[in-house]
Design brief:
Domain HTH luxR-type: 905-970
Strand content: under 5%
Structural class: mainly alpha
Shape: flat
Protein name: Helix-turn-helix transcriptional regulator
CATH topology of the domain at 7-213: Rossmann fold
Number of helices: 49
Keywords: ATP-binding, Nucleotide-binding
Number of strands: 8
Radius of gyration: 37 Å
Strand order of the largest sheet: 2-3-4-1-5
């Protein structure tokens, strides 16, 4: 078990497997022996995983015995045991103890190369004697620490070793021994002798299994980064290596090494894979070669017809191949290679002529409508039949588009475009002209998430397109404007869309112009958002949207109509108080779904749920969000931009409604270890709950998010805004103000989201007691955002939460100025209730009641303060909002609002009232009368009277003597 320095890199993504092994070791160390069978494909990292466990044992002072089987058949019995004992006896860390244990067990000592017998010769030894000696040896070594006995590569184990494994697994009970056996699951064909042993052992109560799975894509990338000494890799390198290695660490490492030297397939790896094929009979090898040409999957009938073998011969060959785990059944009549690289190795080993003939045979069988276009294109191209390959590639691209596979569609279209000049009459074969086929490739490119590449292609198409074809010109420009918008190039996007609109007359209406109008309206909205100084007449944008809707309806362009409806709703929402924007969004959603434009449908669905949320309809918003999220997953869109946004919105709705257990279940899917802004946005939403509950996970999440601060406006807004709140709960208002400043620097002055950040900053100023101009500036910012749209117009609709945050800002500003006004806090409570007492934003209602109770105490309204305080405590306890509960407990103690009275005192303090004991506690802490008054919300004169009464009742002459008595009686620890 070599430790070559790559163990830690291979352990990426193996924490669960290592945890399972460590748990078995812990059980063994505690006196319950354990056996673990570790399986996985060749090269998946079994040895490195077990090496990590061995290091754990050595660090604990235990004994490690590691032996390895070899591909030598039955000729070397007990080879792994011999190997383990020989190595351990020569290990300077544990050799002395092992040699001492062996000295009393000559039956084992003779197995060693320098023993009385020759290496591995156990023919004269009684098996039970040897088994007993082995059991005794590991038991003796376990008295001073845990023992790890590893038998590696059991797929090559001899019969005796398999028997030893079975024996130890059955009889080890109280020994401090962890027995680990590793084997290649891909080598265990149906008749392999280890298969029944594994099945038998896994029925035993102390035997468990650990399957080492291949890497996920991100784990392969991390592994390769570790191999390259932490240097960042181009994303395409990691993706390509993962795709070819299928997550196998050994293959990934070989491929990565080959990539750096320019090799396509490492010779060593190919030899490794082909050695397994060469064990087969002639017919079986022939079938494997046919299957390699077919691709990853092949059917029974195709194999028979292309191989030229009869049915009986093919059946026998396939049985042999499957028993050796080279092909595995897939469905009722098909087979796939056990590993893709095995197919690559076999394919690369074919002679050129043989390869071409086999491809031609497959193409002939797949011709017409009998096979998939993609397969036909692949085989025809490999057989050099370009006309068939061209037509099939076009058909394959369209098929891929229909099933929602844009990356594959792009590949097929690009192949067809590359063959355009090499085939006769390509327009007839393709059923379209070259420009429109290229436009189809552009669409596939954009839908694959490669907007920049789509823009580059569209610009080249505009240079070569026929200027007389205006409808085509509009189509190209509308697409270009759309993708420019996706790249946040809003000025060029708007100008391009405007150019498209102007190319065709309004009458007669055309679907191309309707789409261009819809895109133009969308780009104008984006331009206003990104450029606050950009102003147009109020009539222009809604008039353009209405024109787009009319043109779309006249020409049946339902997706253009839906897009324009969403834009119109967003524009009017901020400007019209009575508009039911959610109805417009619902109408747009339904139109887009019927038109099959899911991008527009998701945009509409998001705003439909969001608009209901903004209007305080939390139940309706939750229902709409749930329906939309279900739609995203049903259609494979759960991780699209709007899919992720909808999941975050759904979580936020339940958080707002005080359904925190439900919200926590949803947030469990929000990853912590994120490295990209899109993932970090989703992760940041979990902070709402974690910060409010004082969860330690917030600190870890912040550590992952912090490096990405500043890269994304929404991420910065959420994570740094909540970092400010966390700092305030931790008593660090200065740090909170740093976060607030950073967020506001990244936002536009009239952005309504800034109201919450301004209110948080005012909370910090109030806690600091800084009656400064900065507090006035924050309030002014909040008021401006509440009353003004991004383009400088009057804001008619803010949203209920926005209004509530404005009320909070007003109340915090008064507190910062030294005038903690109960009426302002009452308004804040009411605002957060969203017109439903006991409802609305449940947590923020409770936080506002905390401040209201505090303000009421300061104004002498103690009974009303107690009622507000109790209400806030009830909610904080139900939600598990620990920071708020702690703040409420502090207020309850200082202001005597808690329902429970302090425990009755005894001894010298028994004569004091509860209030006098509170005062004495503060005296013992070194507080003066003014500080006592501020803490207990009483006047300094009243504090002085309490202190005089305490001195008289305790019969002491000074505050110092009173404090000493308080310490002696344990008042400060009660």
């Amino acid at each position: 078990m070599a430790d070559d320095g790559r163990d830690e890199s291979v352990l990426i993504g193996r924490r669960a497997e290592l945890a399972a092994l460590t748990a078995a070791l812990d059980r063994a160390a505690a006196g319950t022996a354990a056996t673990v069978l570790v399986s996985g494909d060749a090269g998946v990292g079994k040895t490195h995983l077990v090496s990590a466990l061995a290091r754990v044992v050595r660090d604990r002072g235990g004994t490690v015995l590691v032996g390895q089987c070899a591909e030598l058949g039955e000729s070397m019995p007990y080879l792994p045991l011999v190997d383990a004992l020989w190595r351990a006896a020569r290990d300077p860390r544990q050799g002395e103890a092992v040699r001492a244990a062996l000295a009393s067990r000559p039956v084992l000592e003779r197995l060693l190369p320098d023993g009385d017998g020759h290496s591995g010769d156990a023919s004269e030894l009684g098996q039970q004697q040897l088994f007993g000696a082995t059991l005794g040896l590991v038991g003796e070594l376990g008295r001073t620490g845990p023992v790890l006995l590893v038998l590696e590569d059991l797929h090559w184990a001899d019969r005796s070793t398999r028997h030893l494994l079975t024996f130890l697994s059955r009889v080890l009970q109280r020994e401090r021994v962890c027995l680990v056996g590793t084997y290649r699951s891909d080598d265990l064909h149906r008749r392999h002798p280890l298969r029944p042993v594994v099945a038998e052992l896994l029925r035993l109560p102390d035997v468990s299994a650990v399957e080492v799975r291949p890497f996920a894509p991100d784990e392969t990338a991390a592994f390769l980064t570790a191999l390259s000494a932490g240097q960042a890799l181009p994303p395409d390198v990691a993706e390509r290596v993962h795709a070819r290695s299928e997550g196998n660490p050994f293959y990934a490492a070989e491929l990565y090494a080959a990539a750096r030297t320019g090799e396509e397939l490492p010779a060593g790896l190919a030899d490794l894979l082909l050695a397994r094929v060469e064990r087969l009979g002639d017919n079986a090898q022939r079938v494997v070669r046919v299957a390699a040409v077919a691709g990853r999957r092949v059917g029974d009938e195709l194999v028979r017809r292309v191989s030229g073998l009869d049915e009986a011969e093919v059946g026998a060959a396939l049985r042999e191949i499957v028993s050796h785990r080279l092909l595995v059944p897939d469905g009722a009549d098909g087979y796939i290679f056990r590993h893709a690289l095995l197919r690559e190795a076999v394919y690369a080993d074919l002679l050129p002529g043989e390869r071409t003939r086999l491809h031609a045979a497959f193409a002939a069988l797949l011709g017409g409508d009998s096979g998939s276009a993609a397969e036909l294109a692949y085989h025809s191209l490999a057989a050099h039949d370009l006309p068939v390959a061209f037509a099939a590639s076009v058909r394959a691209g369209r098929e891929a588009e229909r099933v929602g596979a844009p990356a594959e569609a792009l590949e097929h279209y690009d192949r067809a475009l590359s063959l355009w000049d090499a085939v006769p009459d390509p327009e007839t074969a393709a059923g379209t002209d070259r420009v429109r086929l290229a436009l189809a490739a552009v669409r596939a490119c954009g839908r694959s998430g490669e907007a920049r590449r789509a823009v580059s292609r569209l610009r080249r198409l505009l240079e070569t397109a026929d200027p007389a074809d205006r409808r085509l010109g509009v189509l190209l420009r509308e697409n270009l404007a759309y993708y420019l918008g996706d790249l946040d190039m809003d000025i060029e996007s708007a100008d391009t869309a405007r150019e498209a609109v102007d190319m065709l007359p309004a009458d007669p209406p055309t679907p191309e112009r309707a789409a261009a109008l819809a895109t133009y309206v969308r780009t104008l909205l984006v331009r206003v958002h990104n450029n606050p100084g950009y102003r147009r007449h109020d009539e222009e944008l809604p008039a353009l949207a209405e024109e787009a809707i009319a043109a779309a309806r006249a020409t049946g362009a339902a997706d253009a109509e839906a897009s324009a409806l969403v834009s119109l709703g967003l524009y009017r929402e901020e400007r019209e108080t009575r508009l039911r924007a959610q109805d417009l969004f619902a109408q747009a959603r339904d139109l887009a779904v019927r038109a099959g434009n899911y991008q527009v449908a998701l945009r509409a669905a998001f705003h439909h749920a969001r608009a209901r949320f903004d209007r305080g309809d939390l139940a309706g918003a939750a229902e709409a969000a749930e329906e939309a999220v279900r739609f995203t997953f049903d259609n494979g869109l759960g991780w699209s931009s709007y899919g992720a946004a909808l999941r975050c919105l759904r979580y936020l709705i339940h958080y707002t409604a005080g359904e925190w257990a439900h919200a926590a279940r949803l947030a469990a899917d929000f990853g912590i270890r994120v490295t990209r802004p899109a993932e970090a946005q989703v992760s940041a939403y979990a902070l709402f709950l974690e910060v409010a509950q004082g969860d330690d996970t917030a600190a870890e999440r912040m550590r992952w998010l912090e490096p990405l601060w500043g890269e994304d406006e929404l991420l910065t807004y959420i994570s740094r805004g909540l970092a400010a709140e966390r700092a305030l709960w931790d008593g660090d208002p200065a740090a909170a103000l740093d976060h607030v400043a950073a967020v506001l620097d990244d936002m536009r002055p009239a952005d309504a989201a800034g109201i919450r950040i301004a209110a948080t900053g005012l909370w910090a100023h109030a806690d600091l007691g800084s009656r400064c101009d900065a507090a006035d500036e924050l309030l002014s910012l909040a008021r401006t955002a509440a009353s003004t749209t991004l383009d400088g117009g009057p804001r008619a609709w803010l949203g209920l939460e926005g209004r509530a945050w404005l009320a909070r800002a007003e109340a915090e500003h008064a507190r910062a100025r030294g005038a903690n006004d109960p009426e302002l806090w009452r308004r804040t409570v009411t605002a957060f209730e969203y017109g439903t007492p006991g409802g609305g934003f449940v947590y923020e209602v409770a936080r506002s009641r905390w401040r209201l109770a505090e303000a009421l105490v300061e104004h002498g309204a103690r009974d009303e303060a107690a009622a507000e305080w109790r209400s806030a405590v009830t909610v904080a306890e139900r939600l598990g909002a620990r920071p708020l509960r702690k703040a409420l407990a502090d207020l309850g103690t200082r202001a005597r609002l808690a329902a429970a009275s302090p425990a009755a005192a005894s001894g010298p303090l028994a004569t004091l009232t509860a209030r006098e004991r509170e005062v004495l506690r503060l005296v013992a802490e070194g507080r003066n009368n003014r500080q006592i008054a501020e803490t207990l919300f009483i006047s300094p004169k009243t504090a002085s009277v309490h202190v005089s009464n305490i001195l008289a009742k305790l019969d002491v002459a000074s505050r110092t003597q009173a404090a000493a008595l308080a310490h002696r009686e344990g008042l400060l620890t009660s």
